[in-house]
Protein 1
Amino acid sequence: MPALWIAHVTVTDAEAYGKYAELAGPAIAAHGGEFIARAARYVQLEGKERPRNVVARFPSVEDAVACYNSAAYQQALDHARGASERELVVVEITD
């Protein structure tokens, strides 16, 4: 079943995070991920507000997790560490 990769991010170093974004996109695409929302307009109703919210759709939870654990994504993530505060969850889509 398809899955959503949902990230909530506060960027603290725009230059370093820009490098993360540059590398993360191709890594996500290589695992069948496609962005469906990326730093778009949002309304925070509950919880900690993060000004950058990203949703990507993957063919499965396993594909999303494989992407996260891949060498290419981990290389991208090296640029986000210390340049952002973030939460990331993968949720399976159910009918």
Protein 2
Amino acid sequence: MSQATMTVIPKTMKAAVLTELKSPLIVAEITMPAQLEIGQVLVKIHFSGICGSQLGEIDGAKGEDKYLPHLLGHEASGTVTAIGPGVRHVRPGDRVVLHWRKGPGIEAEPPVYHWEGKRVNAGWVTTFNEYAVVSENRVTAIPADSNLEVAALFGCAVTTGFGVVQNNAKVQIGESVVVFGAGGIGLSIVQAASLVSAYPIIAVDMFDNKLQLATQMGATHIINSRNGDARQMILDITGNAGVDVFIDNTGQPAIIEMGYQITKPQGRVTLVGVPRKGSNINIYSLPLHFGKGLSGSHGGEANPQTDIPRYLGLFRNGKLPLTPLITDTYSLDEINTAVSDMRSGKIAGRCMISFDASAS
């Protein structure tokens, strides 16, 4: 008998469903698949972060959504309850981080759920649900005694933020860094820049609560872009020579263009935020031929198999204070409130959806 059939898969579970773009999520009981297919892993979710990417999905930032209705979420912690045929990297009982970047193992067929007689789509990982059927290559095992609320951050915020600094921008000791947009990923970028001894580290945002948290994460200077000309305020700090590294988390063309203009001739611009479909940037490209860099980041090019254990080790040994990054916790029934609070700037850091508070 396979391990998949030894554990009973719940017939239904509660999940947040995106049924229509620019509309609230519907929290409903949906029907689970009857069995696990090759490479699939059944995980009980404990904590899920909400990333700005999900706000973009809800808003249709990339254009038409052909998969409605579908589930959401790509950053969580959980416990494996069953595995499908062929799974070798995790086993039932393992504590795991769920992530959207590919790790080792099988990339399985995405699961299909049902609700009110309709098919509900899901990708290789979703996390706004009590249980998740995910691909083996979207889960990484962690020590059983891990702090599961903090562990959820390794699904995206921390691994992306640190990867941006290490793999994309390749920040060097003493280089100046501007982080434009201080959400969950932006704050992780600030923290990573601090760990590599960048200076100055300038966090820019529209909300003072986010900027105050950025100083806890390692920002040496903060700028509220509502209070004046952000470009000039940055140059007042760095000098007119400009910035070594400019990292944009907003996806707004005007900010990207400004960052490109104020970086040094050998400086680098890294784009983490993705412009909405149809929004293009205008740049004078000649500096690209003489050493200036402009590149996009895909999750910081993180490798979950190696990066999650490294960063988790830093946290467990007191070298990476991540607890302050989690500023708000909601239940699944409150998910639309959480989304609204993210949009309004009420949430300073990363907010968590808690499915099992006792798991922490």
Protein 3
Amino acid sequence: MDRLIFTPDDVDLTRSPLRRGIAEPTYVLGAFNPGFTRLANGNLLLMVRIAEALAEPVRGDAVRAIRWTADGYVLDAYPLAAVDLRDPRQFAMKARHHRILALTSLSWLLPVELDAAGEAIVAVHYDHAIEPVATYQDYGVEDARISRIGDDWYMTTCSVSAERHGTTLHRSRDGLRYELLGIVLDHQNKDMLLFEGLVGGRFMAMTRPLGECYFAYPPDSPFVGGPSINFAVSPDALHWRPLEALGLRARKGSVSAMKMGGGSPPILTEAGWLTIWHGVEARKSVGIYRSFWALMDAHDPTHFLRVEDAVPLIEADPALTAAIAHQMYLPTPVVFTTGMIDLGDHYLVASGEADLACRLTRIDKARFA
């Protein structure tokens, strides 16, 4: 069973943190890619990414971007002649030695509480929204992943700025109120997933570093060069050491070998550590995103028991977004899984649908047999 649980129309922008500085009209470009966890009270929580954009980004001969400062939110203007506006999510600076982007929106995180079965919204906690608080987040906070480890909840996010594009860590004692602990992985190491439990007494994570250059595998290798998912360990969740053991690699023959990245934080099942990840098929400016899954050994997660990269577990469903199709802006189907909760005989999986809304999918446990 699939349905949208939270959409752009569910956001009250009068309570947006951007009201501290931005008086011009804005709209929700997307309410998507939610971190997902169970709270101490038994209810479920979606930590929803709210991408808030100017209703009129272009004014005169300039396009404007939103930026956080310690004194409030401001607008920066860039000459139209100096930018490429073809991507609705961002614009690229022309005539630069490096690929340099600015965003058409600024993202902040909104906690949305659901009942214990994930069937209804109980509360929207604007008072606990997470927004930028440092210059390394001045273009926003994106794509939360939440893992409960012991008595605490750990949330990784992607912090975006001209300074860096890195992974930040938050911690909570109740799953709702989070404290920022700072940067844990540096430039463009995205989609960091903490295992939901210690492994050999240490914190363990799946990471996905990005780069501008990748090296080729030998011609007879089953793998394709490009972004991959790696492993790292830490004594305290703050200081991470990459492992030499190979993680997930894109394989030849898969339709989603163009790019891959972490989806749901690994959870421990009777069969081993289970995680959902995304693979991307090259298509237009934005590829087609699908969700796949992998099972890792309970004692040594670097040993993969199964990697399913042929048949998608979850694919984008245009029927889900039919009622809000007028708000669609991506040219290709996208589903981006971000969390999974055990509900007995099935899992409840949270995803971003079309970079627009939050989707819940019920998957029978027999699907992973």
